[in-house]
Amino acid sequence: MHNTPDQSYLDAIEEVRRASGAEGTRAFWALMREEAAVKCLEEPILGSYFHATVLNHKSFDAALSFRLASKLENPMLPTMLIRDVISEALEDDPEILRAAALDVIASFTRDPACLDLSTPFLFFKGFHALQAHRIAHWLWSHKRRSLAQLFQNQISASLGVDIHPAARVGSGLMLDHATGIVVGETAVIEDDVSILHSVTLGGTGKQGGDRHPKIRRGVLLAAGCKVIGNIEVGAGAKVGAGSVVLEDVPPGATVAGVPAKIVGRSDGLPAHEMDQRLN
Fold first, then answer.
1. 166 φ, ψ to 5°?
2. Angle formed at CA 173 by CA 274 and CA 64, multiple of 5 degrees
3. Is residue 134 part of a domain?
4. Which CATH number fits the domain that encloses residue 217?
5. What are the backbone angles phi and psi of residue 249, rounded to the nearest 5°?
6. Do 266 and 275 contact (CB within 8 A), yes or no?
7. pLDDT digits (tens, 9 = 90+) for 25-40
8. pTM over the 0.85 mark
9. d(Cα 128, Cα 124) in Å, to the nearest integer?
10. Helix, strand or coil for residue 71?
11. Of 233, 159, 160, nearest to 194 (Cα)?
């Protein structure tokens, strides 16, 4: 891990990982509020921004609904209505909130450009896109598909990330830089996966049914790689930058090339290590 967090960070992180629903986010949110207060003093010109996004909110779910609504606002759909939809989803499924906290932690522990917990929440569009997708997926699962597709469109237009609302994603994910990420309708991304910019999880053509990749736990998808078809990238595998994957990748394998071939083995969870080298 690149950072040297103090014990309060470690305690909050462990509490979030152990707890379910919103229980594990209280200490986590308290830390984020403390960070925002410090940033407000360091950069007074952004005082109103830090208050609007963090300091005016007593809970993580309230702040998250406000933050996402500002990203999804549309001339035809007022921000307050969007916020009501987001709050409804968070209340119905507390695991959405816990997944968001784990995604923050994933960025903090894996990204050398992320120096604290509040930075992804405030500034990382990959985090914003991922949380907005969770709401769109909730809508899709509750047969509110037109609104889910509107959310998808807004995420794509404003954040440059296109994830179909039906795609299933785990927690502890990091979309690093995020620009140009495309994830198809029947794709599955399990927990603890890291995905860099310009990655595509695509189908093979016009056929319907289950036609998109399944990305298992701990996988690293390096910049610009394309994984095509109903294939599986096994747990702990690594896909090299710019590769085109057309066949199953065994667990723990490192693949690279066009088309991708096995070039080595990966120990542990490459998603946590964030080492894009192939050796």
1. -80, -15
2. 135
3. yes
4. 2.160.10.10
5. -110, 120
6. no
7. 787 888 899 999 999 9
8. yes
9. 7
10. helix
11. 233
